Amino acid sequence: SWKGIISYDxxxxxxxxxxxxxxxxxxxxxxxxxxSGVFQQLRVYEEKLIAVTSNxxxxxxxxxNEIGLIDTLSENGTPLDISFTSASILNxxxxxxxxxxxxxxxxxxxxxxxxxxxxxxxxxxxxxSITGYEDELWIAYGEYTQFFNPFPLNSRGISHxxxxxxxxxxxxxxxxxxxxxDITVDINNPNRVYLSSYIDGLVILENEEVVDILNGTNSDxxxxxxxxxxxxxxxxxIGPAVFDxxxxxxF
Length: 251
Description:
The protein has no helices and 25 strands. By secondary structure, the protein is an all-beta fold. The strands form 7 sheets. Strands 19, 20, 21, 22 and 23 form a 5-stranded antiparallel sheet that branches. Strand 12 and strand 13 (102-106) form a beta hairpin.
C-alpha cells in the first residue's frame, strides 16, 4: 500500500496509496498531510521536496512548509487540462513533465504561465498510421482492433511533419473528431488532406484548417448498422482511403 519513499534532510518519508504523506520515526508512521490526485513522483531537488500527482505539484522546504503549488496552468488566460507525470528543480528553475504538453519550464514555484521546452516532435509515441507524401508525413493516432472495433473511443489530434518542422493539431483543432485512424493527401492539391475517422466520418483539411466534415447526416456516406440492421446514428466509420490516377478518392 506504499507508493513512494525517500530520505530528506536526514529524515525518512513515505506516501501511501491514499496519498497520505508520513514521516517514519522508529518504525512509527506519523501523518504529515495528504496530497490530492493520482500519485506520480516523490523526489528531492536542491534541498526541496517535490511531490507530484496527476493534477498538482507540491514543493516543500525542510520544515515541510509548502513553498510552491502548481495546480493550474493557463495559456493566453485560458486554463489548460493538465496531467503531470514528473517535476524537477535545476538552478532554482522548476521543470514539469505533462503527458500532453510535454516538458514545461515555469517562471516560479507558484506560476500558472509556462514555456514549452520539449523537442520538436509528434504528439504521442503511440502511432496507428503514417502517410507519406513527397517529403512530408502525416501521423494518426486513432485505433481499432483486428475485429474493426474502435471502442473505447479516443480523442487525439494528428501530427504533420513538413520536412523541417512538426505541426501538431489538437483534438479541438480538428473540431473534436474522434478516432482519426488514417490520413490521405490529395494528389491534385497537397495542401488538402482527408482524415478518416472510424466513428465520425470524413474530415477535409486545407492548410491544416477544417473546411468540411462529411458523415451519415449531411452526405451519402452510410452509417454502421446496429444489431437490428438499422443505421446507427452518429457512427460513420471511414477506413483507409486512396486516390486513383483520375484524382477520385476511394475508401
